Amino acid sequence: MGQVRAGPGPDTVTREAVTRMRAAPLSPLAAPALAGPGLSVRLGRLAFLAAVFLAYAIVFAPIVMVVVTSFFDQEIVTFPPDGLTIRWYLNAWAQRDFARGFLTSLQIALAATAIGVPLGTAAALALVRATIPGRGFINTVLLAPLAVPAIVAGSALYMFYLRAEDWLDMDIKATLGGLVAANVLITIPWTVRLVTASLAGLDRAAEEAAANLGARPLTVFTRITLPMLRPGIVAAALFSFVASFENLELNLLLVGPGRTTLPVAMLSYLEFRMDPTLAAVATAQILMVTILMLVTDRFVKLSRIV
Amino acid sequence: MGTLLLDGVSKRYGEAVAVDRVDLDIRQGELVALLGPSGCGKTTTLRMVAGFIEPTAGRVVIGGRDVTRLPPYARDTGMVFQSYALFPHMSVADNVGFGLEMRKVARAERDRRVAEALRLVRLDALADRLPRQLSGGQQQRVALARALVVSPAVFLLDEPLSNLDAKLRAEVGLEIRELQKRLGLTTLMVTHDQDEALAMADRLVVMEHGRVLQVGTAEDLYERPANTFVAGFVGRCNLLPGAREGADVFRLTSGAAVPCAPDAAAPGGLLAIRPERIEVAPDPAGAGRLRAMTYLGGRTEYHLDLAGEAIVAVSPTPLPDDPRRRLNAGDPVRITWIPDAARVIPTADAASVTPTPEKSPAR
Ligand SMILES: Nc1ncnc2c1ncn2[C@@H]1O[C@H](COP(=O)(O)OP(=O)(O)OP(=O)(O)O)[C@@H](O)[C@H]1O
Ligand SMILES: [Mg+2]
């Protein structure tokens, strides 16, 4: 709806500017013609700012809505609110499932990141640097989990885990190990993607300069390559962690009683209640991710990488 | 001791020959420049010396030791990269100290030598900066200091001035030359800028299609080019086809007879003569004709026609009352040069410019 209004704005301005500029050299009285483009340039800039603002508004509207409704003092959200409260936060705190889910999700996401980032980085190095046959195919396979709908991957893993439990005669589903293994499927592709991009932009001459100064290959890697890749790796860790932490579909079938992730716990809560407690939990998560990003950004400029 | 010997060094990529049997002997403390058009194999040659590219054939010998099969870190070369290739995450001092650290030089000694190297390139005040906080010229000097500080047996420069603006280029070029002389560094430099090469090098190597066409001092190349390519590439040159008719007479294909330097070895081919060696004077009976005159401040260029042959002459701009100032396009002129200024280059030499037989003729 907003875009419809924003559309004709800049367009009209541009056409106007073009007409005036074309008219300018013909006009013997240059002064008014010169004022014309100045005005339309200013109008154009205004329209541009409006469009930018609108885009941000559209992106942030849902987030703002979630945060705002988490303070509404009624079970069924209506406008205007009856009043403001923090009781949904207290309720969320009181729900043991959320606290346990949070801890489980945290454990899984941390472990999956700790495993996936080194593996993904190694894979990215091999893909970009080594001459291995079928490089394109391997790259596609490594990125595939991002393309396959998570619910499909989750179902496949569920069936695979059941089979594996039969063969190996051990628990896999709903164990920490099983869940971490599944989440590595998220952290590896994210890492491969971001580190591959970082590697492609890396100046090989710096590595050659180090070798020229007497550094052996391993020293070149630890002293030059890794530090230069650091922003990419940090970003990979951040995105891997967040993607794993907030993942619902992949874990949906793999969790079990006593070991549930936060998103799954939220979904279960939704089956019985529809109050703003979920908005409160979501707000807490938004806060966590924001802080994580701000802290990361202090060390590496995320905007330069992603 | 730093001497560098290339012995029949070649590099081929499949069918294509990037460097073709290059022989080169660089003495201790000498600066030799590889000069040639784009794609002639300069960078490939330099990188084979540094060890980043393994030659297909031939030997690279540094200080008497055959290093052909050694990896880069085991060769004693100091290279300045075209892009400078500074370590972005290290301070200027750490960049410069890296080579010493790799050589396990003790901390105190290392600090002392880093400070000294930075003083040498006049960057001691910026030791704690990161590379991205430096200007292009300063980064270039860090790269120089980093390569110099380890006192390499061979100093390698890949187009060291190409990222600098015209004014800085001449200045830094002189600085490098001064440092190189003062430290007695055996140096191989790559450039495609002939002015740079002429100004800095003890000897120049003109390459084309991966092959060395001529090795010599600036004067050798300028006064006695071995073939038409060198004549045309190093400085400007008029090349007039024809054949020798006497000891010092050359008959142009267009019919005119002109003076040339006596040289028994060159019966025919092309007459090579530099624009600034040609005298132009107004003369109603002159055989030449002025087609255009370009005033360039200190110099004036005359575009001449001698019996259908286009010739360029350059001379210091004459005083305002000189008759040459009143020349107009179309005026008849007398074109003269002393015989020794015009050398006959045999056309047989032109064959060495054509691609080698190993290269597939198709494609
Ligand atoms: N990896 C490669 N594979 C195939 N051909 C190559 C490769 N590297 C270089 N060449 C070819 O070898 C030839 C010499 O290249 P080189 O980079 O040495 O040229 P150059 O003299 O340094 O040119 P420039 O002045 O443009 O830097 C070129 O024709 C180039 O196309
Ligand atoms: Mg090159």
TrEMBL record, chain B:
Occurrences of domain ABC transporter (ranges): 4-234
GO molecular function: ABC-type transporter activity; ATP binding; ATP hydrolysis activity
Annotated membrane topology: Peripheral membrane protein
Cross-referenced SMART domains: AAA (SM00382)
Alphabetic keyword roster: ATP-binding, Nucleotide-binding, Transport
Any GO CC annotation of this UniProt entry: ATP-binding cassette (ABC) transporter complex
Cross-referenced InterPro entries: AAA+_ATPase, ABC_SmlMolc_Importer, ABC_transporter-like_ATP-bd, ABC_transporter-like_CS, Mo/tungstate-bd_C_term_dom, P-loop_NTPase, Transp-assoc_OB_typ2
Compartment annotation: Cell inner membrane
Main location: membrane
Superkingdom of the organism of origin: Bacteria
UniProt keyword Transmembrane helix, yes or no: no
PANTHER family, per database record: SPERMIDINE/PUTRESCINE IMPORT ATP-BINDING PROTEIN POTA, SPERMIDINE_PUTRESCINE IMPORT ATP-BINDING PROTEIN POTA
Family: Belongs to the ABC transporter superfamily.
Protein name: ABC transporter ATP-binding protein
